[in-house]
Automatic annotation (TrEMBL):
Keywords: Heme, Iron, Metal-binding, Oxidoreductase, Peroxidase, Signal. Residues 71-213 form the Dyp-type peroxidase N-terminal domain. Residues 224-408 form the Dyp-type peroxidase C-terminal domain. The keyword Heme applies. GO terms for cellular component: cytosol. This is Dyp-type peroxidase. Belongs to the DyP-type peroxidase family. It comes from Pseudoclavibacter caeni. GO terms for molecular function: heme binding; metal ion binding; peroxidase activity. InterPro entries: Dimeric_a/b-barrel, Dyp_perox_C, Dyp_perox_N, Dyp_peroxidase, TAT_signal. It holds the Pfam family Dyp_perox_N. The keyword rRNA-binding does not apply. Its cofactor is heme b.
Length: 421
């Protein structure tokens, strides 16, 4: 809440900048001069206060909590904008270096999510409208192995591969991932830059995927989003706050195969799909609905009338064919094994076309959270790879898997259970 964000956002800004930049900051300080620094800080405080007074209180000052048992950005309705950044650790980053880097990420994240600038923030005015900002940190296999190979969860030891994969190097792997999401794209951009600046001594960006949903305020909360095929996408998903959610995401539904440091955390997969929209354009509405087994207008199963109606997989047409085809996406992805369930959190992307023959490079950034990637997600992806009509109009071009450590208390940092547990 706005009232919880106290103090001047840039209160330590200049001293931390001096710490991070060393000589450069000393030079800048020399220009500003002794009293000059206090003057500059007062100017920043004024600017920030002015900006905050202009904020539209409906959404601008909404905050999510960084500290807690679980990390933020998972058990919630997804925000309108999200950027995922996967990073590679520099070769010399060892356990001791991680012990220095991870508290910096947590400190920045806690401040930015609360609407306060990070310590070395050179654009503090950009930090004061968090619009529900969340920052979620995930570890790839390599990061965990640098601490202790024995602590890598079994499902992260080897990346799963599927026959349908047409993976492009640009979208694969990563030692560390940051999921940065908010209802305002400027907030996301500022947060991304702040975090990357602060961990630059340790990491290099490997890939980045920016996605969007409907703009904040354009639809009633709880409305299922649409993807660029026009489909209602996200209907069957565990509800935040429920036991079901806890079982799928936090506790796991099967025998617990995770290492102790991951208690309160979960598993995360990022899969990038190119949507072949020009080919999709050639398909009539009936064919489009058949591909998933749901109606395009309401998102209802083809055997029902409303989005949340239970599908009737036994229903047949007058000619005796199943109404929801065996190869329909929804039918393929509904596993008879209730342990094989995941939390989907998808975003759309659209970029400039790769060639003059196309109108755009569009698709879906499919992400899913589940406690055990191996037993919950992999069987579903295998079914989709084996048979799914939707595959006619998508290319599976990216894949990355991460462990999401638990949250942390104030004074702690995300990753503490791995490094010190
Ligand atoms: C471009 C790729 C994809 C598109 C366009 C897509 C689209 C959809 C749509 C429209 C639905 C029906 C509505 C809903 O329940 O959300 C659906 C359901 C579902 N999808 Fe996907 N999906 C894609 C990829 C995937 C992948 C990679 C997985 C997991 C491996 C997956 C898992 C599911 C599940 C579990 C359901 C719910 C099935 C049920 O009714 O129980 N989807 N998807």
């Amino acid at each position: 809440m706005p009232g919880t964000r106290e103090g001047a956002p840039a209160e330590h800004g200049f001293s931390r900048r001096a710490l991070l930049l060393g000589g450069g900051a000393v030079a800048a300080g020399a220009v500003v001069g002794g009293g000059g620094e206090a003057y500059a800080q007062a100017r920043v405080r004024e600017a920030v206060a002015r900006e905050r007074a202009q904020a539209d209180t409906a959404n601008a000052l909404v905050t999510q909590t960084f500290h807690g048992v679980h990390q933020s950005g998972i058990e919630m309705t997804p925000q309108a904008h999200q950027t995922l950044v996967a990073l590679d650790l520099h070769d010399d980053v060892d356990r001791a270096a991680l012990r220095r880097m991870l508290p910096i990420i947590s400190d920045d994240a806690a401040r930015l999510m609360a609407g306060r600038s990070a310590l070395a923030d050179s654009e503090p005015e950009l930090a004061i409208m968090p619009t529900g900002l969340t920052i979620t940190v995930g570890f790839g296999r390599e990061l965990i192995a640098r601490v202790d190979p024995a602590l890598v969860p079994a499902w992260l030891a080897e990346q799963p591969r599927f026959a349908i994969d047409r993976l492009e190097d640009a979208w694969v792997g990563g030692d560390l991932v940051l999921q940065i999401a908010a209802d305002d794209p400027l907030t996301v951009a500022h947060t991304r830059r702040m975090l990357l600046k602060d961990i630059r001594p340790f990491t290099t960006v490997r890939w980045e995927q920016a996605g969007f949903r409907r703009a904040w305020g354009s639809q009633r909360t709880g409305t299922t989003q649409r993807n660029l095929f026009g489909q209602v996408d996200g209907t069957v998903n565990p509800e935040p706050g429920g036991d079901d959610f806890r079982r799928v995401v936090w506790d796991g539904t099967t025998e617990d195969r995770n290492p102790a440091w991951l208690a309160g955390g979960t598993g995360f997969i990022v899969r990038r799909f190119r949507m072949l929209l020009d080919k999709w354009d050639l398909l009539d509405r009936e064919g489009r609905e058949e591909a998933v087994g749901r109606r395009l207008d309401t998102g209802a199963p083809l055997t029902g009338t409303a989005e949340y109606d239970e599908p009737d997989f036994d229903a047949v047409t007058p000619l005796g064919f199943p109404v929801i085809a065996e190869y329909a996406h929804m039918r393929r992805l509904r596993s008879p094994d209730t342990a094989q369930r995941i939390l989907r959190r998808t975003y759309n992307f659209e970029q400039a076309p790769r060639s003059a023959d196309e109108l755009s490079e569009s698709g879906l950034i499919f992400t899913a959270f589940q406690h055990d990637v191996g037993t919950q997600y992999v069987p579903l992806q295998q079914r989709m790879s084996d048979l799914d009509l939707l595959n006619e109009w998508v290319e599976h071009i990216g894949m990355a898997v991460f462990a999401i450590p638990p949250g942390c208390d104030e004074g702690g940092y995300v990753g503490q259970t791995l490094l010190e547990g």
